[in-house]
Each structure stands twice: as structure tokens, then as C-alpha cells.
Amino acid sequence: MRAYNFSAGPAALPTPVLERAQAELLDYKGTGTSVMEMSHRGKVFLALAAEVERDLRELMGIPSNYKVLFLQGGGKGEFSIVPLNLLRGHTSADYVDTGHWSVQAIKEARKYGGVNVAACAADKNYTYVPLEATWKTDPNAAYRHICTNETIQGVEYFWMPECADGVPLVADMSSHILSRPVDVSKFGCIYGGAQKNIGPSGLTVVIVREDLLGGAHPLTPSVFDYTQQAASEWMLNTPPTFAVYLAGLTFKWLKQQGGLAGIEKVNIQKASLLYATIDASEGFYRNGVAIADRSRMNVPFFLHDEKLNQAFLDGAAAAGMSGLKGHKAIGGMRASIYNAVPLAAVEVLVAYMRDFQTRHG
Ligand SMILES: *Cc1c(COP(=O)(O)O)cnc(C)c1O
């Protein structure tokens, strides 16, 4: 029996993806070996890798002047890898601080160069995205970094910065990549750890515009050098082959859901239902994020009486739900409703929330 899984990450994968992987586990396409047990430089895996990259390019509409890299190091690894690759001799970069993951990115970037915090939402406890018009940007910045979905605070950008001064926009999309269409051409670089919306942990996806390559700091580890990895079609070292394979199955599954426009419709339904339930509870449940910036992927909420938290979680577990405990940094509850979480799971959750309120309200 599969749980209704609201884990923030590593998170739910589509059941058909896991079933397919299970069916192919011992014998991948008649090779007599698992996809885990073959050379990443062999014909079979190289064909798979090319198809996985093609499917991601098609899903996201990635223009041909962008490289797609499947690397290791995770989202947090990219917090160092980005400045190492993209400072390109500049003295500093702009960062917009919208929450926990922005703070981490800024902390790491400061090891490699100057950081200009162009805007910071800490004044309202990270419950909104500061509008671009309020940003104190530096036209000489090497790049401008944003976290387009703050996984812990549940704050998401539903508009994309223009960066009219031509400074390349860099985005950590770890927790909402592939949840809706984005215009990749607006970005210099997009990155994300796979374990929220793509596949298992251990895989990091990087999409980088070609004109930003060639300027990595000389101390950049080769395996984290975008230019070297692009030149070797991300086979400079052994990529996380099984994770790449599973990501590929997820891309196929997404195409069957109508691509990113198709999955976005479902994601809107799921998020609307959950926020409507919170808002209709007359304060029994509370989400403090500005309405326009409420994340469709991560929905933190608090019970009016924190003493009920454990009873809420115990009841949810008994009803087959997992992963609802909020991040320790902010407490309360959090329902992560990534692509692989079906509408039916959200329906079970909101029915439980209403029932719990009736019993404890
Ligand atoms: C989870 C997450 C990270 C960190 O990912 P790791 O793979 O654990 O390093 C970074 N940024 C965002 C937005 C995340 O959600």
C-alpha cells in the first residue's frame, strides 16, 4: 500500500515510474544487466542519456544555445558551483533573499566573491517576493541569483525578473522545476537538485547559456566545471546513472500528462483546493504567505493551537498520510504537493483537515 506522500524531499515519485523501473530492474532492454550495472560510456547508456536530455529539452522548450548537464552535488553544491563558474572575473554577484535557501546560497557565494543582497524579504518573515522595481541591483554584477520557489517558507515567483540591464539571471528551481512552463530564454542559468520534482537524490540538473561558459575559476573542480562537462557531454566523470534513468522515466511520464502545461493544470487544482481549505477554516489553520506568492508546490500551514500538532500528525499517519511535519526551522505543518502527488492525495488531506477541525474546533 502506497502512502499519500507529502514529503518535501526526497519526495514522491510517480507510481508508474517506479513500476517501470521495477519491471526493468534486472534486465534493461535485453542486456541481461540492470541499467545500474553497465558502463556510462557504453552504447546502451549513451543512447539512454541522449534520450533523457532530448526529453528534458522538449518538455522545457530549452533553446539550442543552452547546454543541459546532469551532474552531482545537489542544490547546495550548486551554491558554490555557480559562483565558481559564473563570476567570470567579476568582483560580485546580486542575490535576492526570499527565504531559507536564498540565505544558504548567499552564505556560500560569499566564500568566492562579493555578494550584493539586492532585496530581502526578512522584514516580513519571508512571506512574499519583493517586486523587481524595489531591487537595489548592481549593473556590474556577474549574475543575479534568485530562488524561484522557497521550499521551506512556501513562497514562489509567478513572474520572472526582466533584468533590463542585461545581467544574467540565475535561478535555483530545485523545488518547482517542471511544475509549469517557464521561458528558459529569460535565464542565464537554471539549476535544481532532482529529489523534489525530477527523480531520486544524487542528480543535479543544470541548464546554462553557452555564452556564460569558458570563465570558470581555475580552482573549480573539473567535475563541477560547466565548460568541461559541456564539452564532454556530461560524461567527464561517471554521472549518477540510475538517477538519470529514473529522471528519464519521469520525463516520459510528464509527457503523457500533457507536458508542463498539462501538469500545471493539475498543480493549480491541487494547490487551490488546499489553500481554499486553509482559508475557509476561519483561523483554525493558517498560512501567512501573500496570496499572490503562495507556492503551488510547498504549502506550510499552522494549527491555531500548536498543542494539537502531534494529534494532527498521528491522525494523518493513521489515515495513510506521511511527510506532513513542517521543517524544523519554522515548525507547524507542510504539505509538499509536487508533480507526483495526485489530486486524490490532496482530496484525502483536505477531508482529513476538515474532519480534524470538526473534532477539535
Ligand atoms: C532542497 C533544496 C536545496 C538543497 O538541495 P540539496 O540537494 O539537499 O543540496 C536547495 N535549494 C532548494 C530551493 C531546495 O528546495
Report the bound ligands by name, code or SMILES.
pyridoxal-5'-phosphate
Order of helices and strands: EHHEHEHEEEEEEEHHHEEHEEH
Indicate the structural class: alpha/beta
- Beta-strand proportion: 15-25%
Overall geometry: globular
Number of strands: 14
In this structure, how is the largest beta sheet organized?
Answer: 7 strands, mixed
Radius of gyration: 21 Å
Key features?
361 residues; alpha/beta; 34% helix; three-stranded antiparallel β-sheet; binds pyridoxal-5'-phosphate; seven-stranded mixed β-sheet
Can you summarize this structure?
With 361 residues, the chain is of the alpha/beta class. It has nine helices and 14 strands. The model has no long low-confidence stretch (mean pLDDT 98).
Overview of this structure, please?
With 361 residues, the chain is α/β, with parallel strands linked by helices. Helix content is 34%, strand content 16%. The strands form 4 sheets. The chain has a 7-stranded mixed β-sheet. A hairpin with a 4-residue loop joins β6 (149-150) and β7 (155-156). The protein is globular, with a radius of gyration of 21 Å. It starts with a strand and ends with a helix. 45% of the residues are buried. Bound molecules: pyridoxal-5'-phosphate. Pyridoxal-5'-phosphate binds at residues 9, 74-76, 101, 147, 151, 172, 174-175, 193, 196.
Would you spell out the secondary-structure blueprint of this structure?
Layout: E1 4-5, H1 15-24, H2 43-60, E2 66-71, H3 74-86, E3 92-97, H4 100-109, E4 114-120, E5 144-147, E6 149-150, E7 155-156, E8 169-172, E9 189-193, E10 204-209, H5 226-231, H6 241-256, H7 259-279, E11 285-286, E12 298-303, H8 309-318, E13 321-322, E14 333-336, H9 343-360
Helix pairs in contact: 1-6, 2-6, 3-4, 7-9
